[in-house]
Structures are given as C-alpha cells and as structure tokens.
Amino acid sequence: MNPTLRVTVWGEFRHEKKNPKVAALYPRGMHETIADFLRPHSDFTVRTAWLDQPEHGLTDAVLASTDVLIWWGHQAHDDVHNDVVAKIKTRVLEGMGLIVLHSAHYSKIFKTLLGTTCSLKWREATDKERLWNINPAHPITQGIGEYFEIPAEEMYGEPFGIPEPEQLIFISWFTGGEVFRSGATWQRGNGRIFYFRPGHETYPTYHHPQVQLVITNAVRWARATVCIPDHCPNAPALEPLPPDPEAAARSTIGHV
Question: Could you give all domains of the chain from N- to C-terminal order, each with its CATH number?
Fold first, then answer.
C-alpha cells in the first residue's frame, strides 16, 4: 500500500472566473481551497484538476494514481465527456473512493453510479443550515459533535431522488423549515461513495472548519484499499469432470 493517500480534487472552475462574489471567496478556485486544507495532513498527497484541462485533468495516469476523487460541479455537468465519466466509474468499481459535494448531486458520475434521478428542491436565500450528526460512531463524524451550523447556505429539500443510503450520516434542517439527507454513503463495486451537501459557490462554506473536518474524515474513510479490475475469464475446472453425454452424442452426428 502507498505510504500516503493520493487525493485528486476536481472542480469545474467556471463560477470563479465569471462571478466576482465567487472569485472573492475562492480566488484560486473552490478546488484549490479544498486542496489547501487537505495538504497539511502528512498522510495525504493532494493534486487538483478542473473541467477545461485536456481530458478534464483526469487522464488515465491521474485516475490510476488516485485513491480518492473529490468532485464539485454545478453549471457544466453536460460538458463533462462521457468517456471520462466511464473511466471514473471503472475506477470506482475497481476500488477508488469518490466524494461528491453539493450540486454534484446532479453530476453525470453520481447519477451513473447511483442509477437514479438524484433530483431535489432548492432555494438560494439566507437560510441557516443545521447539520445533525445522526451517526456519531461513524469515522466521517469523528470530532463533529451532536450538530454544527452554517450561518448561510443554499437550501436543499426532500424528496431527494437517491437510492436508500447504506449509511445515513447527517440530516440538515434549514430556517425555511425543510430537511434533507445531507450526508450519505454507498458502495459500488469495490469503491466507497460519500455525498456531502454543503458547498454552494456564493457562500464561504469551504472555509468552515467543521465542513473541512467532515471532508478530511471522509477522505480517510473512502480511501482505496484494493484495485480489482473487472474481467470475465473462462475458468478451467479444479477437479476432473465427468464425461458429457451430450457432447459424445454431438460428436457422432454426421458419422452414421
């Protein structure tokens, strides 16, 4: 096993170039802000990739050397090439971890792996978000406490079109009264998936210390422990097989 956990943080890096409010919060991009709070951990090696790079920065070599992929997307889901999505799916099935953030609930890779609509209702306003830790024994929630609050965030509300989570980690409540399954896990093939709701681009959410702690914990939880490529071999018998009478009958056809 590699001595360090290899993390790739992927973002669209579009809002930061077009919206001055987002650029003020994340001058080098949300992906770099996330990478910056992960890099001080001695057990992580962290790189970033974004949409407008060749192959979206996710070449075969990058994916092969990624233990956990963190994905943030919003306005350009359709611009992600299907062949890149297929490669990411293959790596998750082989064992790579995937952390899906906020509006990436509607990303091609999340919908492909979960097989559902992943739809929800939303409101960008002045809601406070209170995230309740309903799974305090889980590795992702270590150090979080009973709940934490984000002073202002975009609201996501139920129903959330996801398959039943294997583990539900957080439930959010918003000032407007809505609730939402805001932290959930699944396994697909050999890979672990964690969806974490907070992170709208016009709020300083990725500067929030407890949001950073959740993502850091999630990286360690989702880390790849195996890489098992898919194959469908023809298998020889381990023991001698009895004669096949039908095969013997077929061999005599045409020789009568």
Answer: 5-118+182-230 (3.40.50.880)
